[in-house]
Amino acid sequence: MSRRLRALPFLICSTIAMLWMATACISGECLDNKNSLPLAAFYSSQSSPQKISLDNIEVYGLDTPSGQLLMDSTTNASSVYLPFRIDEPQSTFIFHYKQQGLNDEAFNDTITFRYDIVPYFVSAACGAIYKYKVREIASTHHLIDSVKCTVPDSLIDNVAVENIAIYFRVQLQEAARR
Amino acid sequence: MRLLTLLMGIILASVAYSQHSQEQAPNQATTPADSIATDTLPLDSVLTDSLAVDSIAVDSIATVSPAETPRPTRKLTPVDVDDNKPFRPSLHYYDSKGELLDEPVLFLSQLDTIRKKKRKHIYPDLNAVSIGLNLWDPIMAVTGQRYGGIDIWADLSIQNRFFPIIEAGVGYAHYTPKDGNFTYHGRPSFYAKVGLNYNFFFDDTDAYQLYAGIRGGFSSFTYDITDITINSPYWEETHLTEIRDQHTLALYGEALLGIKVRIYKAFSMGWSIRYHHLFKCDNPANSVPHYIPGFGNRNGVLGASFSVIYTIPLNKTGERNDKKSLGKK
């Protein structure tokens, strides 16, 4: 057997090793959400909007079967997930303020999203989802100044990024100077 | 000081030259003619020549009794080599063609006229045609792979060194992941590749090949995603939907390394490992293709092939070379 042919066993073993490594390197995990989940962040409505955290506020969907809260008054949060309905092309969310003087349903704000539902196959790992192309946003203005969709083309998908910005009329408390 | 040194050098040189001059002319008469006998014959013996000793002096040496004077050592002076002669390198005044040189040189160099012997190809230009059937994906289907295809290929052996090749096949997919919410159904779609292999064992027996190659491939394919289940747990809603008639075109390339081994007569088997790269694949409006015929998993980097091959020799010369090479083994 020539010298070159003696390298064949080495070639075979190295190739099998490469195949094994290659199959191990193929990522089979979904790095994003397995469903589209709009994420709304809170901002102040000043000329230079700043991200803010709110407490004593409850957020829930209108006419949810379970009445489950999306955000309760005990948490101090700067954003909240607002899952859209899939049976209808619109979803409405209620913002109830629990602060003294505002703890009344008359001061509740509501935000209604109207959108197109678009089925989309992302990948074998993430599966199929619905994308939401937001057509219209309507809100009351007790404490909410405005609501905007911050993603390109107002198309919300399964990527875990901020999709909606809610601007509140608030008075910022300046940090104590040391 | 320098002048004194120079003067001493001149004096020494002149002394040496005078001594050399005396030694250079041994035939000159530096000794009295009547004192030395130049040969070994006694002067009073009968000479073989016609000259009488006592009448004619054949040379300048006088007839003196050898007992009276010591016989000197015979000195031989070779014609070609003289140790006392100063070395003078010989210079070339003319070139190899007889042309006068501008200035004399020590060496005349010549171009090496010996030419490299042109390598003779062992195998003819059109050596053989091979037809193969790639069975890699059907084999992998047994292990659980839920996509793949089958293809047939043909190559032309040029001097057993270069192998232009064309591959054509059909790919399909039917994949329902264990924890997924869909079924991916790739309709049977055509793909083709063209490329070239290079055999590193080109001057060895053609029963074995170790080759490297490149391919360019394309596929136009259609697929559906069915049995899609989408839940909205907060609103307690569930939808069943599907995405159909997704069509696109893919262009890709491959670099590969493989071997081919003759099993019996004209039948061979071979495998290759391939690195592939997707150049272009436009996504349809509602999906990203998961499987690309001829390429494999869209996110995959490596692939492989395993083929059963039948080789048809193109001329008798190729066949004889094959037998000779097998005979040597």
General description of the model:
The complex is a heterodimer of chains A (178) and B (329). In chain A, β6 and β7 (127-139) form a beta hairpin. Chain A has a six-stranded antiparallel beta sheet, with no helix packed on it. Chain A has helices spanning 3-6, 8-25, and strands at 39-44, 57-61, 69-71, 79-81, 90-97, 109-123, 127-139, 144-149, 155-156, 164-168. Chain A is 12% helix and 37% strand. Chain A has 178 residues and is mostly beta strands. Chain A contains two helices and ten strands; from the N terminus they run ααββββββββββ. Chain A has one domain. Chain A starts with a helix and ends in a 10-residue tail after the last strand. Mean pLDDT of chain B is 79; it is low at 19-57 and 318-329. Chain B has a domain at 128-328: Beta Barrel (Porin), CATH 2.40.160.20. Chain B has helices at 2-24, 136-142, 316-328, and strands spanning 92-94, 100-105, 128-134, 147-157, 162-175, 183-199, 208-232, 237-264, 267-281, 291-292, 296-297, 302-313. In chain B, the strands form three sheets. In chain B, strands 3-4-5-6-7-8-9-12 form an eight-stranded antiparallel beta barrel. In chain B, β6 (183-199) and β7 (208-232) form a beta hairpin. Chain B starts with a helix and ends with a helix. Chain B has 329 residues and is mainly beta. Chain B has three helices and twelve strands, in the order αβββαβββββββββα. The interface between A and B is large, with 37 and 39 residues.
